[in-house]
Amino acid sequence: MKAAVILFPGSNREGDVASALKHVTGVTPSIVWHADTELPAGTDLVVLPGGFSYGDYLRCGAIAARAAIMDAVRAHAARGGLVLGICNGFQILCESGLLPGVLVRNARLRFVCREALLKVERSDTPFTRRYAKGAIVRYPVAHGEGNYTADTEMLKRLEGEGRVVFRYVMADGKRDDTQVLNGAANSIAGIVSEKLNVLGLMPHPENHVDPLLGPTDGRALFESIAGVLERA
Amino acid sequence: MKARVLVTLKSAVLDPQGKAIEGALRSLGVPGISSVRQGKVFDVEFDGSDPAKAEATLKDACEKLLANTVIETYRIEFVG
């Protein structure tokens, strides 16, 4: 597996995700600068890391989504290549049109930095094969603009096509859209593209991979990706 | 040439920042405010003097970057 992590000015989780990839899969990703126009030859997985690209100016992820490297990322996705966008990376995927909808200010206007409980809604995506369908996992969240929204028609379509992969749930494992930590529509934490090869999620699986730091619920996401790419 | 682009949230989109400002104005005792919605203003200076061309260029800029049309609408005004 060859992985590339895109670095934008203001990204700050590129080290976390690179180290998680190395820790879980043994693969050291290349770090690719946003102004480059090509991905390293043979790239299987592109990661858009968390952070505050361009200081969140204009809208979160808006300027990064128009960076030179994004044409190469779009082409990679169009070929069926895997793309993982975490936090700011998810915002960038939405702004770039690779995923539908948009992430707006948290409904209660607060930056939320804590652990979130998530339900893994499907285990047949390249990112979630090593999870059981319906599993409840813990990933940390740290964002001020993670309130997923899309028009009613798009939400209906996402639900109808089963493209919600991660959903925030309460301690009883049930979703409560009135209590969801950031106000996200249908408690959506992460969605995939139609062809299941592009995943965007607000929570940070890369921060829960090492038992030294606590829970390791994020490991299976990276194991899933590595498993899929090794078989290919 | 100068233009002003106004980007505002679509009316169906919840605006928690606007709501917070609305609440703050109420608590300051500013009377008669029934609703506040927050938006963005871009003042753009322009080469050339053809308004039709400028309008087309700005529309393109709005669609490409200045507005996210999933949640926002935009309006272009020329200010001379």
Automatic annotation (TrEMBL), chain A:
Cytoplasm is among the record's keywords: yes
Major localisation: cytoplasm
GO BP: 'de novo' IMP biosynthetic process
Pathway entry: Purine metabolism; IMP biosynthesis via de novo pathway; 5-amino-1-(5-phospho-D-ribosyl)imidazole from N(2)-formyl-N(1)-(5-phospho-D-ribosyl)glycinamide: step 1/2
EC number: 6.3.5.3, 3.5.1.2
Reactions mediated catalytically: L-glutamine + H2O = L-glutamate + NH4(+); N(2)-formyl-N(1)-(5-phospho-beta-D-ribosyl)glycinamide + L-glutamine + ATP + H2O = 2-formamido-N(1)-(5-O-phospho-beta-D-ribosyl)acetamidine + L-glutamate + ADP + phosphate + H(+)
UniProt-annotated location(s): Cytoplasm
Recorded GO MF terms: ATP binding; glutaminase activity; phosphoribosylformylglycinamidine synthase activity
Gene Ontology CC, one term: cytoplasm
Cross-referenced InterPro entries: Class_I_gatase-like (IPR029062), PRibForGlyAmidine_synth_PurQ (IPR010075)
Pfam families: GATase_5 (PF13507)
CDD domains in UniProt: GATase1_FGAR_AT (cd01740)
Organism superkingdom: Bacteria
Keyword Hydrolase found: yes
Reported function: Part of the phosphoribosylformylglycinamidine synthase complex involved in the purines biosynthetic pathway. Catalyzes the ATP-dependent conversion of formylglycinamide ribonucleotide (FGAR) and glutamine to yield formylglycinamidine ribonucleotide (FGAM) and glutamate. The FGAM synthase complex is composed of three subunits. PurQ produces an ammonia molecule by converting glutamine to glutamate. PurL transfers the ammonia molecule to FGAR to form FGAM in an ATP-dependent manner.
Subunit structure: Part of the FGAM synthase complex composed of 1 PurL, 1 PurQ and 2 PurS subunits.
Name of protein: Phosphoribosylformylglycinamidine synthase subunit PurQ
Gene expressing this chain: purQ
UniProtKB/TrEMBL annotation, chain B:
Family affiliation: Belongs to the PurS family.
Function per UniProt: Part of the phosphoribosylformylglycinamidine synthase complex involved in the purines biosynthetic pathway. Catalyzes the ATP-dependent conversion of formylglycinamide ribonucleotide (FGAR) and glutamine to yield formylglycinamidine ribonucleotide (FGAM) and glutamate. The FGAM synthase complex is composed of three subunits. PurQ produces an ammonia molecule by converting glutamine to glutamate. PurL transfers the ammonia molecule to FGAR to form FGAM in an ATP-dependent manner.
Species this chain originates from: Ancylobacter tetraedralis
Gene name tied to this protein: purS
Taxonomic superkingdom: Bacteria
Subcellular location: Cytoplasm
SUBUNIT field: Part of the FGAM synthase complex composed of 1 PurL, 1 PurQ and 2 PurS subunits.
Database matches in Gene3D superfamilies: Phosphoribosylformylglycinamidine synthase subunit PurS (3.30.1280.10)
The keyword Metal-binding appears for this protein: no
Pfam families membership: PurS (PF02700)
Keywords linked to the UniProt accession: ATP-binding, Cytoplasm, Ligase, Nucleotide-binding, Purine biosynthesis
Protein's GO biological process: 'de novo' IMP biosynthetic process
Pathway the protein acts in: Purine metabolism; IMP biosynthesis via de novo pathway; 5-amino-1-(5-phospho-D-ribosyl)imidazole from N(2)-formyl-N(1)-(5-phospho-D-ribosyl)glycinamide: step 1/2
PANTHER family: PHOSPHORIBOSYLFORMYLGLYCINAMIDINE SYNTHASE SUBUNIT PURS
Keyword Phosphoprotein: no
EC number of this enzyme: 6.3.5.3
Identification of the protein by name: Phosphoribosylformylglycinamidine synthase subunit PurS
